[in-house]
TrEMBL record:
The keyword Hydrolase applies. InterPro entries: Peptidase_aspartic_dom_sf, Retropepsin-like_bacterial. This is Aspartyl protease. Residues 1-28 form the signal peptide. Keywords: Hydrolase, Protease, Signal. GO terms for biological process: proteolysis. It comes from Pseudomonas jessenii. It holds the Pfam family gag-asp_proteas. One of its GO terms (molecular function) is peptidase activity.
Length: 406
């Protein structure tokens, strides 16, 4: 991600995805809670927990009597409200938790930031917002993916842009970004689309590439169309960065197939499944992950169509083949000596399918580790260039999502 605008796109393309909210949402992960005490989170992993409504999540969390654990699960429920786009349910629950756990929130910087996210005017607007809904037919559609933000701009790097429209006939191109948990709209695009900004709602987010404390706002978009599917009353995040159609809305489009050139809505079910994909919410920022090995190191790969690289790794390979200078974004809040990437050649294995690939490691960047067999191992991102070898079949409702070789 970068503070530069869309027309300075060649380098910023790399940083246009994989963001997460750097507030109490992350601290709510029960990573430091003993396994025996994770009753709420164990329930979440059951079939009932995975399919639970927001009301059922609230009821289960209310059964937790310990104050610290109740605060933790309450933040999880709040995160699910954001994920579900249930804007008008947020104010009442947000204020109730803020009041009940005022002391604990006051002494925790992350939680304090989270519960300062909405001011009174914004909460009033959210209360009056219409219900989020998804309209449209479930017919088969094939939508074109464009390599650039528009046809008149030529960039050194390309990403999958999709045409997104509104009920008033305005359209814009958004990066189809499975690595971004939340849909994000550029400030200028927000004006064109008629997004109603929340006047006193602000948040800060970070990226997997080391940028931290990036400021953004929130707003409500009355209508957003992808093909014949229409989202109504959409709570979106607004910043000075590129437009991203994130996993929060991608996951609500139904069964999908993403190839190098197209996004298919409601395609026939995939006949094979080379590498099963699961929807992970371990850090409350949902992402698509697939079991993988890189240079015989077991890990999880995040499927990130908003990352221009073929593969990005959280740790270096054994032999450096190329080192190049790279400025990772123009944000004035970014600090650190992370101005180089190192390129490696390695062996990627997915469900027995082995490829020799070129990948990048950015020293000091912050792709979070995965926990496998009780040990932290490097995470990797499979980016858009990998789609010359793979296609994504996404069917979250049936639990059958796959990354298949082309």
């Amino acid at each position: 991600m970068t503070g530069l605008n869309m027309k300075t796109f060649a380098l910023p393309a790399l940083f246009a995805s994989t963001l997460w909210i750097s507030t109490g949402l992350l601290s709510a992960v029960p990573a430091n809670v003993p396994v025996a005490d994770q009753d709420f989170y164990q329930w979440l992993e059951t079939g009932q927990g995975r399919d639970a409504s927001l009301a059922q999540l609230r009821q289960q969390c209310d059964k937790v009597l310990d104050a610290d654990k109740h605060l933790s699960c309450s933040v999880t429920v709040l995160a699910r409200m954001l994920e579900a786009k249930a804007a008008n349910q947020i104010p009442e629950y947000y204020l109730a938790i803020k009041g009940k756990h005022a002391r604990a929130i006051a002494v925790d910087a992350d939680l304090n930031a989270l519960f300062s996210m909405f001011g009174s005017e914004s909460l009033a607007i959210l209360t009056r917002a219409g219900n989020f809904s998804v309209k449209g037919s479930a017919r088969h559609e094939v939508l074109q993916l464009h390599p650039y933000a528009n046809d008149f701009y030529i960039a050194e790097q390309s990403l999958p842009f999709i045409e997104v429209g509104t009920a008033n006939g305005v359209s814009a191109r958004f990066v189809l970004d499975t690595g971004a948990p939340q849909t994000r709209v550029n400030i200028e695009t927000a004006k064109q689309l008629g997004i109603r900004m929340l006047p006193d709602a602000h948040y800060r987010y970070s990226t997997f590439y080391g940028e931290r404390g990036l400021a953004a706002r929130l707003g409500i978009l009355g209508s957003l169309r992808v093909g014949t599917r229409e989202f109504r009353n959409v709570l979106v995040f607004v910043s000075d960065r590129d437009n991203l159609l994130g996993l929060d809305l991608i996951s609500k489009l139904g069964r999908l197939k993403i190839t190098r050139r197209t996004l298919e809505l409601n395609p026939p079910p995939a006949r094979r499944c080379d590498a099963p994909i699961v929807l992970s919410r371990l850090d409350l920022n949902q992402r698509l992950v697939v079991a993988a090995q890189l240079d015989r190191r077991t890990t999880q790969a995040i499927i990130d169509t908003g990352n221009v690289d073929y593969l990005t790794a959280a740790s270096p390979g054994r032999h450096v083949s190329v080192a190049q200078a790279l400025t990772p974004g123009g944000s004035n809040v970014y600090t650190g000596d992370n101005k180089h990437f190192q390129r490696f050649t390695g062996v990627l294995a997915l469900q027995g399918d082995t490829l020799v690939v070129s990948y990048k490691y950015y020293p000091g960047f912050t792709i979070p580790p995965s926990l496998v067999d009780g040990q932290y191992v490097p995470s990797i991102l499979l980016g858009w260039r990998a789609f010359k070898d793979f296609e994504l079949n996404l069917d979250l409702d049936s639990g059958r999502s796959c990354l298949n070789r082309v």
